[in-house]
Each structure stands twice: as C-alpha cells, then as structure tokens.
C-alpha cells in the first residue's frame, strides 16, 4: 500500500528503531535526526514517517504531511538557532539522492555558495 514501511529502506528502519539515529525532534508524522556524514556544522534530516521515494511523490500523495515536514524543518532551524540555512531535497541519483525515502536536508552554521555543486 502507498506509504507503507519498506523492509529494505534505511530510513524506515530508523523510524522503527532498528537502526540507531540521533533524534532531534519527532511528531506524529515526522522524524528529524542528525545526518551521519554532516556537510555543515548543523546537518539535520527531516523525514515523513510514511514511505515515499522523494519529495514530489510525497507531496502528490500526502499534502498535509508535506506541510508538516516543511514546518518541522523550520522548527529544527529555530531550535538549532540557524539564522540562515539551506533546505535541500535531492531528487534522483543524478542529483545526489542515495536514500529513496523522502527527506529534507537542513544545512546551516557556515556560509553557502550559489550555485550549488
Ligand atoms: P541523499 O544523498 O540526499 O539521499 O541523503 C541521504 C543522507 O542520509 C546522506 O546525507 C547520508 O549521509 C545520510 N545517512 C545515511 N545513512 C545514515 C544514517 N544511518 N543515519 C543518519 N544519516 C544517514
Ligand atoms: Zn522508507
């Protein structure tokens, strides 16, 4: 069924507590934890508890949960005292997506370049 946990998905395993993570915030619909390979002084991932491959697929199926995810990203940034931050949804392997469970990267605590690499 759409949105169901996938046995072979790393982030579904993190939500289930089968893989450890450093949790920052949790709501009924979202989970936020520190990236294991941080690319900035603050690097937190926010994921929906339901499984969808990427942000656009999530948004098409679950607009309310997508809104929850974006709000939570803002809450994490506020708790981490980030005045500026970058919110990234890598979509597709060509763009650097390696985990195919929708997730927002919150990156902050250093200067950022534009355009990104
Ligand atoms: P992406 O490349 O956009 O799919 O992002 C996946 C992110 O998950 C990468 O930044 C990884 O460093 C991160 N990651 C992979 N395994 C773990 C883990 N066990 N705990 C926390 N973050 C992870
Ligand atoms: Zn998943």
UniProtKB/TrEMBL annotation:
Protein name: Histidine triad nucleotide-binding protein
Gene3D superfamilies recorded: HIT-like (3.30.428.10)
Motif Histidine triad motif: chain residues: 101-105
Record's signal peptide: none
Protein species of origin: Streptomyces cavernicola
SUPFAM superfamilies on file: HIT-like
Chain ranges of the HIT domain: 10-117
């Amino acid at each position: 069924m759409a949105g169901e946990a996938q046995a072979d998905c790393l982030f579904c395993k993190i939500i289930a507590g089968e893989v450890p993570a450093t949790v920052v915030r949790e709501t009924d619909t979202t989970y936020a934890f520190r990236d294991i390979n941080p690319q900035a002084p603050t690097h937190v991932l926010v994921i929906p508890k339901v499984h969808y491959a990427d942000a656009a697929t999530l948004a098409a199926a679950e607009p309310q949960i997508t809104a929850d995810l974006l709000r939570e990203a803002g809450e994490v940034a506020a708790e981490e005292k980030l005045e500026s931050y970058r919110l990234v949804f890598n979509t597709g392997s060509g763009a650097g997506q390696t985990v195919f469970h929708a997730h927002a990267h919150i990156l902050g605590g250093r200067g950022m370049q534009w355009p990104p690499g």
